[in-house]
Design a protein that fits this description.
By secondary structure, this protein is mainly alpha-helical. Helix content is 54%, strand content 5%. A five-stranded parallel β-sheet has the order 4-3-5-6-7, with helices on both faces.
């Protein structure tokens, strides 16, 4: 087998037998017999040949790959004793028992006894010395755990049981054994470790008791040892020593709040008394929490656990892991997105804020925050904006890109524009919509900023309209992935922000549960892609043209010629369109979606008549008319009025009411 690999590698390297022999430093006949598989090279040639092939091929060829045809870790995993592993590593390193013994200060006979499995090293630091020699010779990491148990340090820490170095029996991986192996991996004696912890003159007896699991180190000493062991494992923490896994993973797997409290205390390196003092509570309360007893009136005080952990370790911990045993993203995936009260509470807990801190930051009464989280009431518009801004700042201060993106994904779409603001609530709690002439939705102040700051009063009506339209969606509706391509160059003003508002609209639709499986299916498959016209088509990926909806400006139509006639393309002609007028991007997008979903001509006509600032129906040419309303036409041009005036608030409100009434009939 070595012969066949040697033959393949010399051919791949472009070397003849003579050239290979010259580089390795052997005779040509010897190289030919090795290649033919008649004899095997002596171990001293293995590292030289591996180095030669690595240089020639421009990629690493390890000694174990050359000799065994497998990576080193795969070879060592198949072994069962320290003797086997020592024999393999010695050969691969090109060394013999005499050379190994000289390097670590042992006699050749001792190395021979270890290899033949008569015994194992009496001085445990021999493992550390051997690991260093093999790592240097083989140019790949060989750790203490690799030698002792045939596995990596990470896998050892997580294991429940491992084979004893001498083989035969399994031994349980305990906190004491983890501590011992980590100490050896750092090359420390028990005396040296005790001195580094801070024991004057060293107290190796106490360290030995810890290693034998006769005693558990204090929290502060565990934290000091974790920092010492970071030499061999950068992200190691107290829970790695105690449980073999990081704190976050332990918290997510624990079903006991008491266990999670104790783990956070130990990870903070504080005794129960010091932790209670830092939290401004008493040790008895902390003991009750570890027993899962919750004293009345102490719920907000628990949040101080997260603050203390951050002050001691400099790390932020997701509060949802501590209190619920699940990270924020998992809880949000499980919650009904129409439950604003739950979302507010989960974000607050994840951020490590008490209700009192939230009320102080927002300048509100404590009971107000309690009402929000109980679902008794929802924040008003100003408080919604302040709440969103607060969560953005909290997660941004942590450099937590994931948390900040979740604020955008879950919080903003549901809370930035409250659905009950215009008389429409979320989900099953949605009240009846005021009939025409009886009650008006909130006023909108349309102006130069167009959609960005003013969409709040319009979006709820569009949401309700879209839901009503989809109530009778045909049974054979398209179910594949749909790409909505939004051109941010529209009107060269607020295009990107307008695209963001449309994305919020679609996400809000997903948040409103109305037992409408067709709508849920459509929204689940809908991907919103924003960008400049010239780049949009390249971003759609593998989505078929038949499942593409494009909203662009008419001057960019040329970029979409390859999908004309198959994709729905709505081109807005915004030439000479004044900056101060309302650009109906939301309404046009809804119109294009309606075209894709197969609305009939009457439905499309009625919706078109209620799109502000477009050329009236009676002024449309025959070609434009067919493009807009004919079922067999996919390309349409929506022309805007060049001299459009500033849009009137009252007219806007009435227009949106008409759209809703018209679409509801569908």
């Amino acid at each position: 087998r070595i012969g066949s690999r040697l033959r393949s590698l010399t051919v791949a390297s472009g070397l003849s037998a003579g050239q290979a022999a010259e580089e390795v430093g052997c005779s040509v006949p010897a190289m030919l017999t090795w290649r033919a598989g008649k004899h095997e090279p002596s171990p001293g040639y293995f590292p030289v040949m591996a180095d030669m092939f690595s240089r020639r091929l421009g990629e690493p060829v390890s000694t174990s790959l050359l000799v065994y045809g497998e990576p080193l870790d795969a070879v060592l995993r198949k072994t069962s004793t320290f003797g086997e592993r020592l024999f393999i590593l010695t050969a691969l390193s090109g060394l013999d028992a005499k050379g190994i013994g000289r390097m670590i200060g042992r006699k050749q006979a001792a190395i021979g006894r270890w290899t033949r499995e008569f015994n194992t090293p009496p001085e445990q630091l021999d493992y550390f010395k051997l690991a260093g020699i093999f790592s240097e010779r083989l140019k790949e990491k060989v750790g203490v755990t690799t030698l002792m148990f045939g596995t990596s340090l990470d896998k050892f820490l997580r294991s429940g049981k491992v084979k004893a170095p001498e083989g035969g029996r399994d031994i349980r991986v305990t906190p004491g054994l983890r501590l011992k192996v980590l100490r050896l991996s750092c090359g420390l004696t028990t005396t040296e470790l005790s001195e580094k912890i801070g024991f004057l003159g060293g107290m190796r007896t106490l360290v030995n008791r810890w290693q034998r699991d006769e005693a558990l180190p204090r929290a502060d000493r565990l934290l000091k040892m974790a920092r010492i062991f970071s030499r061999v494992k950068k992200d190691i923490g107290v829970t790695h020593i105690l449980y073999g896994k990081p704190l976050v993973e332990f918290l997510s797997e624990s079903d006991s709040f008491g266990e999670r409290v104790e783990a956070v205390r130990l990870a903070s390196g504080l005794s129960k008394t010091l932790m209670a003092e830092a939290m401004k509570t008493n040790p008895a309360t902390l003991r009750l929490w570890t027993k899962q007893v919750d004293p009345p009136g102490m719920k907000d005080r628990k949040m101080a656990l997260l603050d203390v952990y951050h002050r001691v370790t400099g790390k932020h911990l997701d509060g949802c892991l501590l209190f619920y045993g699940k990270p924020l993203n998992t809880l949000l995936d499980e919650v009904d997105r129409s439950k604003g009260s739950r979302i507010i509470k989960y974000f607050r807990v994840s951020a490590g804020l008490s209700r009192q801190e939230v009320s102080d930051r927002l300048g509100l009464d404590l009971n107000t925050v309690r009402y929000w989280e109980k679902g008794t009431g929802l924040p008003g518009r100003e408080n919604m904006h302040n709440l969103t801004k607060m969560f953005r700042e909290v997660f941004a201060a942590r450099d937590n890109g994931t948390g900040a993106s979740m604020v955008e994904e879950y919080f903003v779409p549901l809370l930035l524009v409250p659905l009950n603001h215009a008389g429409i609530g979320a989900g099953p709690r949605r009240p009846a919509v005021p009939k025409k002439g009886k009650g008006q939705p909130a006023k909108a102040l349309w102006g130069r900023e167009k959609i960005v700051g003013n969409a709040g009063s319009v979006i709820p009506w569009l949401v309700q309209s879209m839901i009503d339209v989809s109530e009778n969606m045909p049974a054979g509706e398209k179910q594949g992935k749909v790409a909505l391509l939004l051109d941010t160059e529209l009107a060269e003003l607020s295009g990107r922000e307008a695209g963001s508002e449309i994305e919020r609209l679609i996400r809000m639709l997903a948040a409103v549960k109305d037992n409408n499986k067709a709508l849920e299916r459509f929204l689940k498959n809908l991907e919103i892609i924003k960008g400049e016209g010239r780049d949009l088509l390249n971003k759609k990926g593998a989505v078929r043209p038949e499942n593409v909806i494009v909203v662009t400006r008419s001057s960019n139509m040329g970029y979409f010629k390859s999908i004309e006639g198959r994709a729905v393309i709505a081109a807005i002609d915004d030439r000479d369109f004044p900056e101060t007028a309302y650009l109906p991007l939301l309404e046009v997008t809804l119109f294009a979606i309606g075209k894709y979903l197969g609305w009939d001509e009457d439905m499309l006509r009625e919706h078109y008549e209620n799109i502000p600032n477009v050329i009236p129906l009676k002024s449309l040419g025959e070609r434009d008319y067919r493009g807009l309303f004919a079922r067999d036409m996919k390309n349409m041009v929506i022309r805007l009025i060049p001299d459009a005036a500033r849009f009137d608030t009252k007219e806007l409100v009435e227009m949106m009411a008409r759209i809703r009434d018209i679409l509801r009939k569908a």
